[in-house]
Amino acid sequence: MRAMKIKIFCPRVFNPRRWAVLALPALLILLAGLPAPAFSCPGGGDFLKEHHLKVVSLKFFEGPETAPALGARSYREKFPQASTRYIFWELKIEAAGKRAAATPFAVETLWYDAAGNLIKQATEKFTLEKDHLRPWYSHAFGFPVPGQWKPGKYRVVLKIGGTEAASGDFEITGTP
Fold it and tell me: What pTM does this model have?
């Protein structure tokens, strides 16, 4: 009597290399739907106090998608709807002294319309350089084509390490 061999799996279907190649895109698709892990500031808590920093100013300026050079910025609180594209915030801080090393941190920006509705929330990563005593940081929200902003007052709140660091208001006017 001849022994019968039974194949438990077919190497063509159950080849581990083949499954790894097929599983990788599925895993990437699955992970793309998950929220990104939170960016934490070193040491947590109040980042400004921990690093002996104080907010000097929060200003607003208008520009294209890429921020104009520091000397070419026109800081305002009112912007004409017809010509306004992106509104940038610029946060200046002051350090009590130099630090031992550069420190990464994140700024969470909350943009509110005149009715108090949250219209945009973004988190940007920056680095506090070890030898800068009066650094500034900026980021924008807006549109590539002018005239898309609705007239009214807007409020911007900046949080660092979960704590409000600064807030300010600007207005989009219906006249030039």
Answer: 0.71
Provide the pLDDT for residue 175.
Answer: 65
Helices (H) and strands (E) in the chain, counts: 2, 8
Instruction: Please list the ranges in the chain whose pLDDT falls under 70.
Output: 1-45, 175-176
Angle among Cα 60, 157, 53 to the nearest 5 degrees reads 85
Phi, psi angles (nearest 5°) of residue 28: -65, -40
* Domain at 72, CATH number: 2.70.50.60
Beta strands in 41-83 (DSSP E): 53-63, 78-80
Q: Distance between CA atoms of 126 and 165, rounded to whole angstroms? A: 15
Q: How far is CA 173 from CA 90, 116, 150, in A?
A: 21, 18, 8
What percent of the chain has a predicted confidence (pLDDT) above 70?
73
Residue-number span of the structural domain to which 121 is assigned:
47-173
Using CA atoms, how far apart are residues 155 and 25, in angstroms rounded to an integer? 41
On whether residue 6 sits in a domain, the answer given is no
The number of beta carbons lying within 10 Å of the beta carbon of residue 114 is 14
Distances (CA, A) of 96 to 28, 48, 103: 44, 11, 15
Per-residue model confidence as pLDDT tens digits over 46-66: 888 888 888 999 999 999 999
